[in-house]
Write a structure and sequence with these properties.
Layout (H helix, E strand, L loop, with lengths): L22 H12 L4 H18 L4 H8 L16 H12 L3 H11 L2 H10 L12 H13 L5 H15 L23 H10 L8 H19 L7 H17 L3 H11 L4 H4 L12 E4 L3 H7 L5 E6 L3 E8 L20 E5 L11 H10 L6 E12 L4 E2 L2 H5 L15 E11 L2 E2 L5 H11 L7 E3 L2 E2 L4 H13 L4 E6 L12 E9 L10 E10 L8 E10 L4 E8 L5 H12 L2 E2 L6 E2 L10 E3 L4 E5 L2 E5 L16 E5 L2 E5 L11 H10 L16
Parallel strand pairs: 1-12, 7-9, 15-17
Antiparallel strand pairs: 2-10, 2-11, 3-4, 3-5, 5-6, 5-7, 7-8, 11-12, 13-14, 13-18, 13-19, 14-15, 16-18, 19-22, 20-21
Helix pairs in contact: 1-2, 2-10, 3-12, 4-6, 4-8, 5-6, 6-9, 7-8, 10-11
The structure holds adenosine-5'-triphosphate.
Adenosine-5'-triphosphate binds next to strand 1 and strand 2.
């Protein structure tokens, strides 16, 4: 408790039991979080606040969590704000009566629209005191802004933002914080500041979703202990609650489902009440890159493993419940079928792809054996050549429309290659060994040529045989192999983890860095000669999840056709911004600056010869101990494709870049843990 004192601020002062959670109270907690970078203290502040919510207004726990993690809904709901700086500036201007020019000048000086808005609002005379905002009210307001569509949606979004801003407190630093200098960007509890930052998609508090999850578990354990009349829970109990919530969330990543169940049944009964369920996509298990087959053999020495073809298509998680299944599940999706039965397809990102693959959904029941009543499948959809009866390159798949596809209009047929099963006939099977899951999978379906197949594999640990499998996979238009642990507890399905029990061996990278990188487009340079009307080169960055920043890693101008450059110019010019975002880490040297900066929106896959140190870029700089002050950079980067199935914060992490750099021969080791999962 002593570390949580925040200069006499009392976040709970105006908040009575049963009353909606005041938004000002949450903002005070945010401001306390902002003052520290210590994860334990951040977690303690959040947990203290969540305990108050549980004690006073438990029905507001869900909106509180949503505002803390900067997400309006689970990913599968497909609700995104996607509001650019210009729209936000317009709303700030119209609410506060300041001109766009003045706001832009402020933004240039301060570099944080949240603070610019707080400053603008504090200069505004207030005629009347607005009704205090509540957490639920703010979330509803934001949801309204996100879901506006159709004619005039831009101006209705601006109107929605204005409504929230007019109701937010007008003091720049927030209630009770008048002494705080907002230009220092720390500690102000201004409602305006946090509303704007939410709209921008970054609260900039160092408040990772994982930390909020841990804080929630601790708050719940403490609340339950207190309710039983005991003072404080033991550290074992706290750890047990944390482990339960983490496991449940990894299998059922939906606060909308988990929170009401947890409040009703208690955290220690959560496992029985919240299990993997069809209709709620889980984050897929991911693989670690390798550079050679011998690296695979070293890692899996003495273990049973299997080598599967690595198909080059789009990851798809297929959820299905037959109409006559004894277990039915409440559907959370508008696209899934009615009250009985369900079929839906989700992307790697948990985005609902059902409208992209109506052909797959229409055929699904014909591949399912009659005794199979429900399942969740992990698979890859791959473009299929009906004449030659073989897999087509990934580029063909990309030509399919993403939305509102009509079965009769489909030109590129797909074949589904299934490689794992996570749920079968009413039961989660993620904890079973891969050998058992593979048996379940092969017994539950009947393959149909060109429509549904099991991923091809060989169970061998012989180097020459693996090499042969690799060559054959490439001949069959695959990218290489996925090598997976087959037996033992280590071979369970690990949702959302980049696991060491799955290794990818890509043909292309065997002698290079081991993998391509997925990088965020941060800026661009105008082209020369023929290319002056488009961008000719781009500045790319990787994502540092600990610092919540994008770190520059290379310039790229190779691998683009003229047509692609035109397309990219049209797309990117829409997200151009005047200044780099405050969470971009980049060189300060004037000659290294791009001509244009962008919002972090687009992710590209990029291939590289190798990684090297460079003073122009900052990727991984803080974890390198070589004293050079240089960052890591890509040599001879080449554009491969756009990755619209990845969000910017799912780009290759700085830690991964550091690891890839270290793995190169002759590179000295660096500090820092080598952890990487896509929580
Ligand atoms: P990552 O998912 O590792 O961040 P990525 O999305 O770029 O990277 P890859 O590096 O190409 O993907 O490798 C993993 C992907 O390979 C999986 O997400 C899946 O879509 C695909 N894949 C194809 N065949 C298989 C298979 N047999 N087992 C698992 N994944 C497979």
């Amino acid at each position: 408790q002593s570390v949580l004192k925040g200069g006499g601020k009392d976040p709970y002062k105006d908040w009575k039991p049963g009353e909606p959670v005041p938004y000002a109270a949450l903002c005070t907690t945010f401001s306390l979080v902002e003052l520290t970078s210590k994860r334990l203290i951040i977690s303690a502040h959040c947990s203290l606040f969540l305990r108050q919510v549980l004690r006073l207004t438990p029905q507001d726990l869900l909106p509180t969590i949503q505002l803390m993690i900067n997400k309006l809904a689970a990913d599968y709901a497909g609700i995104e704000l996607g509001i650019g700086e210009s729209l936000i500036m317009k709303a700030i201007g119209e609410t506060t009566g300041r001109s766009l020019q003045v706001i832009k000048a402020d933004q240039n000086e301060i570099g944080d629209l949240g603070l610019v808005a707080a400053k603008s609002r504090s200069n505004q005379p207030t005629m009347f005191k607005p009704k205090p905002l509540t957490v639920k009210g703010v979330l509803d307001g934001l949801m309204g802004i996100a879901t506006v569509s159709g004619d005039g949606s831009q101006s209705r979004k601006v109107a929605g933002i204005k409504k929230l801003l007019s109701a937010a407190d007008a003091s720049a630093a927030g209630k009770g914080n008048q002494g705080i200098d907002i230009s220092k960007d720390k500690g102000g509890a201004s409602e305006t500041k946090f509303i704007i930052r939410f709209l921008e998609g970054k609260l900039r508090l160092g408040l990772a979703e994982k930390t909020v999850l841990v804080a929630l578990a601790h708050a719940m354990v403490m609340h339950e202990t207190q309710q039983k009349g005991n003072k404080a829970p033991s550290s074992e109990k706290l750890a047990e609650g944390e482990a339960i919530l983490k496991t449940v969330y990894s299998e059922l990543p939906s606060y909308e489902v988990i929170i009401p169940a947890m409040v009703e049944h208690g955290i220690f009964h959560l496992r029985e009440n919240c299990k993997l369920q069809p209709g709620v996509p889980l984050k897929p298990m991911l693989a670690n890159p390798t550079k050679s087959i011998t690296e695979v053999l070293d890692r899996f020495e003495g273990k049973h493993f299997t080598c599967e073809y690595k198909y080059d298509g789009e990851r798809a998680q297929i959820h299905y419940v037959a109409e006559d299944s004894p277990n039915q599940y409440p559907s959370v999706l508008p696209t899934a079928k009615g009250s009985k039965g369900l079929s839906a397809i989700f992307s790697r990102n948990s985005e609902d792809l059902s409208k992209k693959y109506p052909d797959v959904l229409a055929k699904l029941h014909t591949w399912v054996k009659s005794e199979t009543k429900s399942f969740v499948l992990d698979c890859e959809t791959v473009a299929w050549d009906l004449v030659e009866k073989k897999v087509l390159p990934f580029q063909q798949l990309m030509t399919r429309k993403r939305k509102d596809v009509k079965v009769e209009d489909i030109k590129v047929k797909v074949c589904v290659f299934a490689f794992d099963i996570l749920f079968h006939n009413g039961e989660s099977v993620v904890q079973k060994s891969f050998r058992e899951r593979r048996d379940i999978l092969s017994n539950a379906f009947t393959p149909v040529e060109g429509e549904f197949a099991f991923a091809q594999y060989g169970n061998t640990s012989d180097l020459d045989e693996i090499q042969t499998l690799l060559d054959e996979s490439v001949k069959a238009s695959c990218e290489g192999l996925m090598v997976k642990m087959l037996d033992s507890s280590e071979s369970g399905y690990e949702p959302s983890k980049r696991s060491r029990n799955w290794l990818k061996v890509k043909k292309d990278y065997l002698s290079g860095t081991g993998d391509s990188l997925d990088l965020v487009v941060l800026g661009a340079y105008y082209g020369k000669g023929k290319r002056t009307s488009v961008y000719g080169a781009f500045l790319l960055g990787c994502y540092n999840s600990a610092a919540e920043s994008y770190e520059t890693v290379c310039n790229i101008g190779t691998g683009f056709s003229e047509a692609i450059l035109e397309e990219l110019h049209a797309k990117l010019s829409r997200v151009a911004i005047d200044k780099p975002k405050p969470f971009y880490a980049h060189s300060a040297v004037p000659k290294d600056q791009p001509d244009v900066w962008f919002e972090p929106r687009f992710v590209w896959e990029v291939k590289t010869a190798d990684l090297t140190l460079s003073p122009r870029y900052v990727a991984g700089k803080d974890s390198l101990t070589d004293g050079s002050g240089k960052g890591i950079s890509l040599r001879f980067p080449r554009f491969i494709k756009e990755r619209d199935d990845k969000k910017p914060d799912q780009a290759t992490g700085s830690r991964m870049v550091v690891e890839m750099y270290q793995k190169q021969e002759g590179v000295a080791k660096t500090k820092g843990p080598s952890v990487d999962d896509d929580f």
